[in-house]
Design goal:
Layout lengths: L2 E7 L6 H10 L4 E8 L4 H15 L6 E3 L26 E2 L2 H11 L4 E5 L4 H9 L7 E5 L18 H4 L2 H9 L4 E3 L2 H4 L6 H8 L4 H16 L19 H8 L6 E10 L5 E3 L4 E9 L2 H12 L8
Parallel strand pairs: 1-2, 1-5, 2-3, 3-4, 5-6, 6-7, 7-10
Antiparallel strand pairs: 8-9, 8-10
Length: 306
Amino acid sequence: MLTPVILDTDIGFDVDDVWALAFLLRCPELDIKLITTDTGDTHYSAKIVAKLLQIAGRTDIPIGIGIPLDETQRTHEPWVTDFSLEDYAGEVLIDGVGALCDVVKNSPQKVSIICIGPVPNIAAALARAPDMVNNSRFIGMHGSIRRGYLGANKPMKEYNVKKHTLACQRVFATPWDITITPLDTCGTVLLRDDNFKAVSLSDDPLAKAVMENHFLWCEQVKDWPIISEIDPQAQSSLLYDTVAVYLAFSESLIEMEQLPIIITDDGKTLVDDAGQLVNCAMNWKDQDAFERLVTERLIDAEFGRP
């Protein structure tokens, strides 16, 4: 039986959300019930989702427009300049938070909510429908526990936590089945060498769309310090969010630990006895195998058939 999932994404800022959505569309273990957009211009983000779904032939998936908060750089704007949400053949729901609550409420199976951005939508859904925790679990790309960005030997304030810390505190303080990939495991994932070459040379329309966004994003953010570490012709950027998608259907390649987690007022993710237990992906058993898995699925459309 397939696992019903909702993806909550701030796609349109860092390109890893594009890679993660494409990977999700190629995971036959998962039944995508809804994709909601969060943070920044959520209408613009919904356009990116819609165009990718259209390319993938998955207009059966509804899109929910989430809460627009803050200004974020629209790093994928040129890719959707010629695309309108009215062009999307599927359903677009203005109240993304309400749509999320409805999917969870009406599902005969427990729904996995995969959140790969800040969590204002999720916090709002918990406020609107507190009993949703009884028929769902939360899987997030959040935090930094023992290691930081690029495998640094110390924890750091992670973007998805610190962007809207109060919302994150609400989510992590809620008694819920919570699983996360902190920077400890997702902060070093990328495709390079044969893996990157396979995706970059693929004729698959979805893989081509991913590569278009990869090169566009690298050009748009070329002044970011982290880009100086990337050769866009030879490797991807860090693909943090793909790990959260993977955890929705498997943990076989990762060492998991149950840790009591709290979110501090200044956006740190701490192990503290006062926190509730969270399933944390702390170490890789085989990161190479995971990166090969992402590659193989992105270049093979057979994985994307609903």
